[in-house]
Amino acid sequence: METLVLNATKLEQLAGRLKAIAHPTRIAIIEMLSEKAKLSVTEIYLYLDIEQAAASHHLNIMKNKGILDSRRDGKKIYYSLQNEALSEIIKCVNKCKE
Question: Using CA atoms, how far apart are residues 94 and 86, in angstroms rounded to an integer?
Fold first, then answer.
């Protein structure tokens, strides 16, 4: 039997990432970015029909937790997923419903 070694730092980072995606708006953003490689803040807030400030708030949380990358192109900032595995996690959770 293999011994399980738990790394407290890695567990804290993982918990932080899971908390960062545990919001309906953030899940919607992840789903959108899994369909399109990159989206601007404007595209995201218009599609979700939320305020620009709210979209930026959610995007910053996910960027700070290492979930999203951002790239500036002129006046626009484009966001993309750092890792496609997150969209797979969302799909997996969706399959768990009754």
Answer: 12
Angstrom distance (rounded) from CA 17 to CA 11:
10
Please, which residues have CB within 8 angstroms of residue 32's CB and are 6 or more apart in sequence?
39, 44, 47
Domain-embedded: residue 6: no
The token pair at 51 is 């305020």
For the chain, what is the total number of helices (H) and then of strands (E)? 5, 3
Count how many Cα atoms sit within 13 Å of the Cα of residue 57 in the half-sphere of its side chain: 7
Position 7 in a domain = no
Kindly report the CATH number assigned to the domain that includes residue 67: 1.10.10.10
From first to last of the 98 residues of the chain, give the pLDDT tens digit.
556 667 888 888 888 888 998 999 999 999 999 899 899 999 999 999 999 999 999 999 999 999 999 999 999 999 999 987 877 877 777 778 65
